[in-house]
Amino acid sequence: YVPPQVRRAQEALDDKKREELGRLKKMVNGLINRLSEPNLSSISGQMEELYMANSRKDMNDTLTDILMNACVTAVAMPTRLVMEHVLLVSILHHNVGIEVGAHFLEAVVKKFDELCKTDAEGKECENLLALIAHLYNFHVVHCLLIFDILKKLVSTFTEKEIELILFLLKNVGFSLRKDDALALKELITEAQRKASTAKKFQDQTRVRFMLETMLALRNNDMRKIPGYDPEPVERLRKLQRTLVRSSGSGKDTQLRVSLESLLSADQVGRWWIVGSSWSGAPMISDPNSKTQPKLRLGKVSSKIMELARKQRMNTDIRRSIFCVLMTSEDFMDAFEKLLK
């Protein structure tokens, strides 16, 4: 039972919150609508100010909603427009905090996975894939995720998937080759194997074209890929370098997260965001579970165990690490014991 006066206060609070969120949405929408390459500097500055003035969660939710509405449409979005929107996310990711890029990336990947399972006629999947590709181009996400998506598409290998593989390779193929040539080679071999066994396509020319594109990538031959132009991405990368304040604007802030981790974030938590709250099962394992590791500590004095208790080392593994650190002779001894 909630007393009437408490209920009224709560409703007033909810109305106030809704009003604030509406105002915030209007402001962010106004900035995104004006977004273009020349005024990217001023708009990213204003967005950072909004991040400082409002709660991070509200800002992340609002920004992600507005960008998804702007970029995920049933018609193919202009490449330049998608790149500018993603560049804004990238600048905020580096200047404000990695949770900005992580929140946006998770929403995009989940939507992409959802749409891939349906037979949507529109270009939503391509638009979402373009967002993921440019998040990789602007160093928000690591190539691990791109390879995961490509492997998933190759494993399904229907005509729709072949279109998506071609689209993705055209956008980020040469960057993938630079980052992990071996993984790309394995992917090409797998795609060739699939193509040789799959005779069910009415349109064999698309499959042949995809394999030719893959071979051109493997041989580092840019001329063989029609319409490939790295210049716009390079120009925006230069702009990104001027707008990112921290020296770590490069690859150290990339989210090295797999497709599986992103899709199961609600079940297993978001380990890639430092300090992210999570209301799932507790991380400390159940003491009655059968798979509890047996920790061989040897003889530890009661004095050390008492110290561990005072420092609130409340699980076996915490106690053992504490005891190792306290009883080791030097760092090499501690290292050996911790490995055991």
TrEMBL record:
GO MF annotation list: RNA binding
Domain named MIF4G: residues: 25-221
Main location: nucleus
Signal peptide range in chain numbering: none
PANTHER family hit by this protein: CELL CYCLE CONTROL PROTEIN CWF22-RELATED, NUCLEOLAR MIF4G DOMAIN-CONTAINING PROTEIN 1
Subunit structure: May interact with EIF4A1, EIF4A2 and EIF4A3. Interacts with PPP1CA and PPP1CC.
Name of the protein: Nucleolar MIF4G domain-containing protein 1
Provenance organism: Oxyruncus cristatus
GN (gene name): Nom1
